[in-house]
Amino acid sequence: MPFTFTNPLLLLFAAGAVVPLILHWLSRRQRRRVDFSATRFLLKALKRERRRLRIEQWLLLALRMLLPVVIAVALADPAYVVQRPVVTGPPPAHHILLIDATASMTARTDGGGMPGGLSEGGAEDGVFARAKRKAREIVRTASQADAFSVVTLSAEPDVVVAGPSRARSEVLREIQRLEPTHTVGQLATAMRAAVDLGAARTFDSQAAPGGFRPVVHLVSDFQPVTWQAWAEADVQSVVAGAAGAGVRFQTHAVARQVANDAAIISVRTAPALVTQDAEIAVEVTCRGFREQATTVSLLVDGAKIAEQDMELAAGADRIATFRVAGGRPGDRVIEARLPPDPLPVDNERRAVVRVRPPLKALVIEGYPGAGRFIAAALASLPASNLQVDGDVIRRRWLEADLLAPFDVVVTCDVPRFSAGETGALARFIDGGGGLVMMWGPHVDPVAYREAFASSPPLLPLSPLAVSEPGDYFPSSGGYASQIVQPFRGRPAAGLLSLPVWRYWRTQAPANAAATIDLPLDNGDPLVASHAYGDGRVVVVTSWGGPRDDAAGAEESREENWTPLPIWPSFLPLLAEITAWAAGAAESVAATTAGALTTLPRPSSKGAGPAATFVRVIGPHGNLLTGQATGPNADGEAKSDEPDREPPRLLRPMLSGIYTAVYRRGGHEQRVPLAVNPSVRESVPGKAAPPSAPEPTIVSDGPAASADAAERKQELAPRPVSLAAYVLIAVLLLALFESAFARYVGNRTA
Asked: Least enclosed by CB within 10 Å: which of 272, 374, 560, 610?
């Protein structure tokens, strides 16, 4: 049947056509014949007009009866049935393009002889450019009814096009905008995001009434470091869930081998805290992936200052050492470079060193002579690359104004502190100062626990009781702490041969995150530290020195707990402790691309009002304010101090120098952050696409899956709605009826 109605019952409204007819008969006038002699002359003219008027009135009645009939037809939604070609077979596909954007994809050459091999040119000739071309090919060759989504694989996988989208031009534009990162991929997270898009089964009720067939396309160089995670339990659980949801995978290898010649795997600088005009030692570690000769260049603030030739063996590391003048106070960007090779991203590595003015230290002694050795040692520290001006005062009332000019405060066997003095010390440390406490026999443990009972705790440890007399010796603790790292491999320094006869047994306060920097052989701490605000606190649990007063004649082993002041390790240990305590607010650390990192802050010690975060500038000058985020909904990390701006977090995806911009007063302060690529992505290897039993994995091939070939075109009836045309007819009929009724009325009158 060529015509049909969607709602045929509504045709019953056509019965309303009798209403105009009934009204017409009811409204007919009742006439009585009266003859007048004067009208006889008009009868002939009236007979001529009567026939025409009757035709017009019957035509008007027909129009009024036709109008409800047409309205009823429009309500019934008439349709004309035509034969149109339709595609039969499997439903259209939802192609989820999972594109690898990890560091290995920045390679300029393929290294494996891919057809139409890659050149030594720029990024457009590299492996990632090949991946984008493959993704565009998948979109262009897919069936017209198919839809698309795009996900990138990196340290923080990104859903670029959620889809399913049939806007091919938009999808192609998004693919063209993609750029590789310098990170290691989180395969399980990216796979889960792609599978969730496919399992959602979002569909267009007209074009895909049965839903889409999800196909995840893995477009990658299949570098072993990232893709070896395919066998791990969390990835396999995603694969198993995908199989249950009907999601298939298809691999597209865009490189047969990850090529690399050499990489810089670390740039280390020493010492940890550098003062004005001191020398900076730089160690650059290079790793070769084939036997070759190469040159390491060292740049400071963008200017090349030195280079060193070296021979690299396959799989071996070589170290190049440099000496750099610290110069004036400020931040120094130190960069090491190798000549270009197939994977250029790991040929550069950076570090940031902050050069400070000479430190000022205040030594507070609890009895005469307790700080004499400390003051003498601090005065001789320039030989250890740390310049310190030291002042010694006797025990007296401590105020904030007294502490403000100093960078480090060292207390030597001070018996007790008042609440006011504790508050002054807390403000000093919170503002970026360092506190070193030497505990000896005169310390009052009860007074300490009462004075320093704060939250968060000011001290990493609380004194409990004096140990039993004995011969105790330090233990290396694996040299894990930065304070004792310089003693590794240097037994002549005497750190582990230092005898300790007595010390304070301690306990960690609640909510304290203490680090045991140097334990004794029985496990009790000899040196411990923690951070407080912008500063650090270091506690040494055993100290004793000669007295300068009359009581010195009676000193004995009861007073002198350790010979540390005259031991060979005393000077270097004091230097490391002082540098660690004073360096918290000034430290500028490097980080790895893809790692969630706390942005470095500007110097806060004695700098006036607190610095306020403004923005982050990326390595290419791009603003990254939106990426500086924290756990809170407003994009900031939590802070325990209400008057302090919480730290800002950043997940940098590219290597290079990032700049955190702060505002203090009316001036801007810029703090650099060195971001380096992951060393793991530098390891070369052959591409190893994942495999699994069919139909989970389909080998590389056309975008449409095999069963797409089963689709056929057939003629099938399809109704074409005429309701719109009928409604137009209703409107025109109503207008014509109104105009005609006016015309007839005027003629009758």
From this structure: 610
Cβ–Cβ under 8 Å, residues 679 and 688: no
Q: What is the DSSP letter of 566?
A: G
* Residue range 647-706, pLDDT digits in tens: 788 889 999 999 988 887 778 888 899 999 988 877 766 656 666 444 445 455 444 444
Main-chain dihedrals φ then ψ at residue 142, nearest 5 degrees: -75, 160
Structure tokens at 202: 């979002």
Dist. CA 353–CA 356, nearest whole Å? 10
Class of residue 302 by CB neighbours under 10 A (exposed 0-12, middle 13-18, buried 19+): exposed
The string of pLDDT tens digits covering residues 166-180 is 899 999 999 999 999
3-state secondary structure of 386: coil
Report the DSSP pairing between strands 525-532 and 535-540.
antiparallel
Rounded to an integer, what distance in angstroms lies between the CA atom of residue 488 and that of residue 343? 35
In sequence order, the 6+-apart residues with CB closer than 8 A to the CB of 742 are none
- Contact between 312 and 296 (Cβ < 8 Å): no
Q: Region 342-371: what's the mean pLDDT?
A: 86
pLDDT at 736 over 90: no
User: Residue 111: which of 124, 120, 123, 122 has the closest Cα?
Assistant: 120
Element (H, E) at 149: strand 147-153
The predicted-structure confidence for 602-646, as pLDDT tens digits, reads as follows: 766 655 566 788 888 888 888 775 444 444 434 344 444 444 566
How far is it, in rounded angstroms, from Cα 596 to Cα 615? 17
Cα separation, 716 vs 535, whole angstroms? 79
On the CB side of 436, CA atoms within 13 Å amount to: 32
What pLDDT is recorded for position 724? 78
Identify the bridge partners of residue 187 per DSSP, sorted by sequence position: none
Residue 545: the pLDDT is: 60
d(CA 107, CA 340): 11
> What is the C-alpha to C-alpha distance for residues 519 and 522, in angstroms, rounded to an integer?
8
Q: Which residues does 672 contact at the CB level (< 8 Å), separation at least 6?
A: 331, 333, 352, 588, 600, 657, 658, 659, 660
Given this model, what pLDDT does residue 314 score?
Answer: 87
**204 confidence band (pLDDT: 50, 70, 90):** very low
Residue recorded with tokens 């040299």: 479
Distance separating the N- and C-terminal Cα atoms of the chain? 50
Token couple for 546: 């000669």
Domains of the chain: 3-84+720-748 (no CATH), 90-259+684-710 (3.40.50.410), 264-356 (2.60.40.10), 359-582 (3.40.50.880)
Q: Give pLDDT tens digits for 305-344.
A: 999 999 999 888 999 999 998 888 888 899 999 998 888 8
- The pLDDT assigned to 382 comes to 55
User: 279 with 321: CB under 8 angstroms?
Assistant: no
Q: Which amino acid is at 714?
A: E
Do 286 and 296 touch, CB atoms closer than 8 A?
A: yes
Token pair for residue 159?
């859903």
Per-residue pLDDT of 7-60, as tens digits, reads 777 777 777 777 777 776 776 655 566 665 556 556 656 666 666 777 777 787
Cβ atoms of 191 and 181 closer than 8 Å: no
Give the residue-averaged pLDDT of 471-498: 89
With contact defined as beta carbons under 8 Å apart, do 684 and 598 qualify? no
Give the number of other CB atoms < 10 A from CB of residue 301: 13
Task: Work out the percent of the chain whose per-residue pLDDT is above 70.
Answer: 76
Decide: residue 116, CB within 10 A, 0-12 exposed, 13-18 middle, 19+ buried.
Answer: exposed
Q: Tell me the C-alpha distance between 125 and 344, whole Å.
A: 13
Spell out the residues 6+ positions from residue 656 whose beta carbon is closer than 8 angstroms to its own: 350, 618, 619, 620, 675
Where are the extended beta strands (E) located within 26-146?
78-88, 93-100
User: Cα separation of 223 and 292, whole Å?
Assistant: 23
Res 388: pLDDT: 62
